[in-house]
Amino acid sequence: MADEKHDPPRPFDVRTVEYLLKLMTEHDLAEVDLKEGDLRIRLRKGAAIPAGFFPAPATHTHTPQYPVSPPAPVPTTQNPTTTPAPAAPTKKYHEIKSELVGTFYTKPHPDKPEYVKVGSRVTPDTIVCGVMAMKVNNDIRADCTGTIVEVVAKNDTFVDFGTVLFRVDTGS
Amino acid sequence: MFRKILVANRGEIALRVIRACRDLGIEVAVVFSEADRGAPYLALADQAVCIGPAAPAQSYLYQARIIAAAEGVDAEAIHPGYGFLSENSKFAQMCRDNNFEFIGPPSDAMDRLGNKDKAKTVAKAAKVPTVPGSEGLITSEKDAARFARTVGYPVLIKAAAGGGGKGMRVARDEEALIPGLSAARAEAEASFKDGSVYLEKYLDRPRHVEVQLLGDRHGNVIHLFERDCSLQRRHQKLVEESPGPNLPDKVRQAMCTAAVRLAKEAGYYSAGTCEFLVDQQNNFYFIEVNARIQVEHPVTELVTGIDLIREQIRVAAGERLHFSQKEIVQRGAAIEVRINAEDSENDFRPCPGTVTTWRPPGGPGVRLDSHVVTGYRVPPNYDSMVAKLLVYQPTRAEAFAVMRRALREFVVEGIRTTIPILKRIFDTPEFIEGKVDTTFIERVLMPPKRG
């Protein structure tokens, strides 16, 4: 379970999402779509809705992506080697954003290890992930030098142009 | 029928297709560029996929990304809208090669009709009259001069790969011919990556009358009558109406059946438009086919009661047309005005910006097709059209009255629009009498400034 002390302030916290998922299962709802002000969450049973799904409402100033996973008993699984997302970042991390539209892969092959993990050092030549589109895999290189602090995009999910893939500590 | 469609366009036409998908119960995803991020119409689709930065070449024209988006959202078909890739036969083929139906005509018909020079060949085969023109492309200045002398000046230099008024120049005499050729070639090269040009006799004050076509994949092609689009500025349409005023019914019928013959000759299906010029003696001449749905399609929807986007989707899904030619009736009068974010008092300077007030008209006989809402930011990267305002009434005179009422009600603040000149147009006697031609706007409403 996520250590909530270290979670950044989020518009919808894990407990809200869990509660909604519980409701959906209990009442056999196929879809829940809630809106409050500028914020919106939509959960649908069945096929995963790709990330980069909902465009930012006009008043948002950052690029929000509301990745929506299919309902599961535990909505997020924390990889023990993944450090929790930084709380109210005091540091601005460099974001590696997708310039392609396609499926994001953290590994070159299911049997092979990940290209990079949290803690990996990268230079502009380091291949950090693959994005597959039209049956062709594209190796994506880091566009910076530093240390991966977060793998933002999920393996085997659809990403579009501008989706944040990684956060990197470029030092100083 | 398709389960899901990807809309590969933006703005009002993207919204139009989203609405048709909703009407048919089809899931719909839409692409967007960074310049359109946050646009309210995107939220009306089930999914929105960012395909690139603002520049069209990096987004709305980026074929591979659009296909990747269709893959990612698991669409079954792609609707290209108008402009952008809608008449790109390579894109149409790429969609089909990747198992996405392209909601438009077959690629080979698009090829044959998309090039204006090739289209004339098809017209001749279908026994459709064409404007006297150079037989094929102009390859030398000597050829150009010889042709011009044969048909007589003035002549029109046209880009073979062109559209939207680009790559066109009029040469009124021999002196103007060579510079006109260079200018047209350069503009064509820049706009379409194809500098080939051909020549046509330039008709004196013609009307622009086009016929709406619809075909299915079972060989049925019908027409949905005509639209008069003579009010143009720099070859960009401002106002369109149906029926064409002062068009004798015999001429109407001859044009419409000619258009159907041409479409059948080309093996055309889906929606398309056959454009003609009509001279002062009511002779009509084929000029080109627009192998796509057009901006002004709602004019025809209003007078015939047929939803053209829904029909495009049905045809693409393999359905037969569920009406025959006899069942298509032209009833009443419809007029559309295009409202652009341009300052019509200052040479139509584009005025992108944020719309602080958007109070569109409504009430009887009014239809508004627009993606704009209060607070919408008109991006500077694309065409400036913000709305299509249409009226539909039993008679043309009543349609004019409703249009005047609607334009008067329409309040837009934060950007300039072409509403002021549109108001003037509807008070102009020649237009009221249905006696305008394609030179009218520039000649009468905007004569060249002195000095």
List the helices and strands and how they pair.
The complex is a heterodimer of chains A (172) and B (451).
Chain A: H1 14-26, E1 31-36, E2 39-44, E3 94-97, E4 102-105, E5 121-122, E6 127-133, E7 136-141, E8 146-151, E9 157-159, E10 164-169
Chain B: E1 4-7, H1 11-24, E2 27-33, E3 47-52, H2 63-73, E4 77-79, H3 89-97, E5 101-102, H4 107-114, H5 116-125, H6 141-151, E6 155-159, E7 168-171, H7 174-192, E8 197-201, E9 207-215, E10 221-228, E11 232-233, E12 236-237, E13 239-242, H8 249-265, E14 270-278, E15 284-290, H9 297-304, H10 308-316, E16 333-340, E17 342-343, E18 349-350, E19 353-354, E20 357-359, E21 366-369, E22 377-378, E23 385-393, H11 396-409, E24 411-413, H12 419-425, H13 429-432, H14 440-445
Parallel strand pairs in B: 1-2, 1-4, 2-3, 4-5
Antiparallel strand pairs in B: 6-7, 6-8, 9-10, 9-14, 11-12, 13-16, 14-15, 16-23, 17-18, 19-22, 20-24, 21-23
